């Protein structure tokens, strides 16, 4: 490498490091991040995933996260700490990319592949987040490096199988990786005409693969949670096909796409075997993902991005000025990062604000109705989370929207702020019986001009005005202060002509009031809504 190339490479690497440091604290939290952390919290609370609370992911990532979460305790900035735990996984993927490219090409291609991958916007942003896909991708890359090594001895295949089996307990999307490896192996060997026997290595890989799934399955069977595990991880996720019938077209075209891959592979049958294997694996992965995955997002492509980066840099070797081409590509990635990361402005404050309110408004063990577990540390009264699959199931009548009954049965007095992801019936119930406090809501209502109001969730309530606790008479007797109210209609006669709300007493005791919202972003909407309801 020339001095100018070393300088260009170092500049790109430093830019990647600086931008990652900024994005770590500024890039918005994806809704999946607190969802995964809520599942990890369940383990710290002595609950069993699937049996005691819902999740549609494989469990190992959450189990491994639980000890760190238990050590850190309840804090509003918890996701920054959990994002820090993703950095070693990011480094593993980068290092494995370097090793893979170095073994298949050269050190120069390996270095540029690692640096460009670290700047590629989808990989940069998704690898930053706290999510199962990062551990899944790291395990896949380690397994791929092991498999690419020579010779393909049985012990090495056993280790690769063990790693892939571990990946299966992290994400069921590992089935896609197994299809990719099997398809790429069969096509490559057939095209090149390799006569090497792989029976013993394949058996060794299978023996290694079943170990971790067997251990995890055994635990959940012993805990009495295996039926729920099967439902949440397999049945629930597969149910989306019932409302996405168009997927049949892609699956019909899949064999033709595989045939096209075989045709192209034959044209390059004189290529180095390991390079061809990786190229065919990339193609098989992409066409299988497009054909069989119903919901496709950038995180699903994480395992194949390192291979793509390697082939991209290898293709640049054909250009006369390779350094310039790689540098321009890095600049394009950096500019794209500024666009997709909203110029790296701080968008984490909203989540921290909400979590501060969660820790002030509720106590451990008190239920909180949120969308996907965003409030992390509190049990949810409704079993299902409200992501796209659940919403589709509810809209098509496969899952009942029993949010009102669940909230009342759990004596849940706190809910997340209104959002479109709440199901219609549950959303209407929460809007009618909970009052905005900022990023959260508490049970209660504005008192109507005739003095009436209704209580949906029984519990202690207090009447408040803009100055504090109100005075008057409640249900025909002098209002004594906080009082237990049963579900149903009540009447409050004002001592003064003023706007009054009846709200969960614990919220008022903990410093919350619908007259003094905790978040400016909700102030106008909430006041406008309250005044309209009051009139």
Summarize the structure.
With 535 residues, the protein is of the alpha+beta class. It has helices spanning 3-26, 32-44, 60-72, 78-84, 87-104, 107-119, 121-128, 132-148, 154-168, 174-192, 199-209, 211-222, 226-238, 247-267, 273-292, 305-316, 322-340, 349-361, 388-395, 403-409, 424-433, 505-509, 523-534, and strands at residues 414-416, 434-436, 440-446, 452-455, 459-464, 472-474, 477-478, 483-485, 488-494, 501-504.
Commentary on this structure:
The protein has 535 residues and is an alpha+beta fold. Helices cover 58% and strands 8% of the residues. It contains 23 helices and 10 strands. The strands form 2 sheets. Strands 1, 2, 3, 5, 8 and 10 form a 6-stranded antiparallel β-sheet that branches. It has a 4-stranded antiparallel β-sheet with strand order 4-9-6-7, with no helix packed on it. A hairpin with a 3-residue loop joins strand 2 and strand 3 (440-446). Helix 5 (87-104) packs antiparallel against helix 6 (107-119) and helix 5 packs parallel to helix 8. 41% of the residues are buried. The model is unreliable at 520-535 (pLDDT under 50).
Shape designation:
elongated
Helix content: 55-70%
The portion of residues forming beta strands comes to 5-15%
* Distance between the ends: 75 Å
Largest sheet: 6 strands, antiparallel
What is the mean pLDDT?
A: 91
Please count the beta strands (DSSP E, at least 2 residues each).
10
Q: Which blocks of ≥5 consecutive residues have pLDDT under 50?
A: 520-535
Alpha carbon gyration radius: 28 Å
- Supply the helix-strand structural class: alpha+beta
Tally of individual helices: 23
